[in-house]
């Protein structure tokens, strides 16, 4: 049985799906006005790992990850660049998909876009107004009447009086109460607008996920996830909208991944420590970034630095080094084995990928010592469960050598000849020269192989 931490109840619970062997899971996706950054990578990898594990355990998963393609920042960026909103969002949706492919993120089963669901948002807002949970202000905006929903604050575990307006909630004189949040923004010159019973305009941020999750998964579904920064106000507001509209529970389990700090500080463009996924992948292989993220439990915060990601790269190379010694015969994964039991126990305990990776190290170490091919199979197959270790080991270990101005294979031949001639000084000189270029040699079974070490 899988135990997962439910942010709503603030405790681990045994996961029980609404329908046997089926899971409906909704995760908040990207607002597409710029490149994805490392914080986005954290959420993408974390929920990809969870999605993969559920499927590995035999569940039929419908995984939905939305795209926000209408938003204040999108409008401002399109105007700044002098292009249409559609051109801007299409560009960055393509770039997001490229980043996901590099990080070995499975495609969601559905990827709804906010602009395709505006009619549903208008319908939900109308229902909320009919129930007295929303009102049209004098400026033409429609706001949610927070104090009318008695359970507001149950996800963030705060009372209404303790709450403050969130990041994307404008505080203005038109609200009945400062904690109220916008559902519909009246039309402004030069901005896209849709017709509605409460006047032309466009939806607020929070309403989109309430509607898209309902239209994709139903009113009541299994899991809602996202980054910890979305717990309040975004997810709190979703609950108020959906449950206020339907008088029915929205999601049984709420899951949130932790933050990524940069050199022990919060990532911020103003601090100059803001990294996009693409910037990181110019320096480190994509699988190293994925391995780095999975090496920490998804709910814990991660500190990103050159040192920590270099350590992750070294760890991943250690596993691939074991896999580079391919056995003559490769057995199938056994039905039971102590390492399998330990791996599944770790993952069943709230998807503890960090502990699961320690089992991969154990399999690699045992294989190196015993050459028992069963440990090779365990390492490879359990790595696949986490979306790791599926590259050709030689290709991964040798990496990108296009910029090297030397012929490594020719230098290995020259070194082996020097060794055959007992010219140890020349042999050592060649090894040292390669080591200075970040190339390590390994002599085994009469053959010399190489790998990049930096």
Automatic annotation (TrEMBL):
Binds 1 zinc ion per subunit. CDD domains: Anticodon_Ia_Cys, CysRS_core. Pfam families: CysS_C, DALR_2, tRNA-synt_1e. Zn(2+) binds at residues 28, 209, 234, 238. A motif ('HIGH' region) lies at residues 30-40. Keywords: Aminoacyl-tRNA synthetase, ATP-binding, Cytoplasm, Ligase, Metal-binding, Nucleotide-binding, Protein biosynthesis, Zinc. Its EC number is 6.1.1.16. The keyword Phosphoprotein does not apply. NCBIfam families: cysS (TIGR00435). This is Cysteine--tRNA ligase. It comes from Ignatzschineria ureiclastica.
């Amino acid at each position: 049985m899988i135990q997962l931490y439910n942010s709503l109840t603030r405790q681990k619970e045994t996961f029980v799906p609404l329908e046997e062997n089926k899971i409906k899971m909704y995760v908040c996706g990207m607002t597409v006005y710029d490149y994805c950054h490392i914080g986005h990578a954290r959420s993408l990898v974390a929920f990809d790992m969870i999605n993969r594990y559920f499927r590995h355990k035999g569940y039929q998963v419908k995984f939905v990850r939305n795209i926000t393609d209408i938003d204040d920042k999108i409008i401002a960026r399109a105007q700044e660049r002098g292009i249409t909103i559609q051109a801007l969002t299409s560009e960055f949706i393509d770039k997001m998909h490229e980043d996901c492919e590099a990080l070995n993120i499975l495609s969601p089963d559905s990827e709804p876009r906010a602009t395709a669901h505006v009619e549903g948002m208008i319908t939900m807002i109308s229902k909320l107004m009919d129930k007295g949970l929303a009102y049209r202000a004098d400026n033409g905006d429609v706001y949610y009447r927070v104090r009318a929903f008695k359970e507001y604050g149950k996800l963030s575990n705060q009372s209404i009086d303790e709450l403050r307006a969130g990041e994307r909630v404008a505080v203005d004189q038109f609200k009945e109460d400062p904690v109220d949040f916008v559902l519909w923004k009246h039309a402004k010159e030069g901005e896209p607008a849709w017709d509605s019973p409460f006047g032309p305009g466009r939806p607020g941020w929070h309403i989109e996920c309430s509607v898209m999750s309902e239209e994709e998964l139903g009113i009541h579904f299994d899991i809602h996830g996202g980054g910890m920064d979305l717990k309040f106000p975004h997810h709190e507001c979703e609950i108020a909208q959906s449950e206020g509209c339907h008088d029915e529970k929205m999601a049984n389990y709420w899951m949130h991944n932790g933050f990524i700090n940069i050199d022990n500080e919060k990532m911020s463009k103003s601090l100059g420590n803001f990294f996009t996924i693409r910037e990181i992948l110019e320096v480190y292989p994509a699988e190293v970034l994925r391995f780095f993220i999975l090496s920490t439990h998804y709910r814990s915060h991660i500190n990103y630095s050159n040192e920590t990601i270099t350590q992750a790269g070294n760890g991943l190379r250690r596993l691939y080094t074991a896999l580079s010694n391919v056995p003559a015969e490769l057995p199938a994964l056994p039905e039971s084995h102590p390492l399998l039991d330990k791996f599944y126990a770790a993952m069943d305990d709230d998807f503890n990928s960090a502990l699961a990776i320690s089992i991969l190290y154990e399999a690699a170490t045992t294989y190196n010592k015993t050459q028992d091919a069963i440990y090779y199979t365990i390492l490879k197959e359990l790595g696949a469960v986490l979306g790791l270790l599926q590259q050709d080991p030689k290709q991964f270990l040798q990496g990108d050598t296009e910029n090297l101005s030397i012929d490594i294979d020719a230098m290995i031949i020259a070194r082996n000849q020097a060794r055959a001639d007992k010219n140890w000084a020349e042999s050592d000189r060649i090894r040292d020269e390669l080591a200075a270029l970040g190339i390590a040699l390994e002599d085994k079974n009469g053959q010399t192989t190489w790998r990049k070490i930096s």
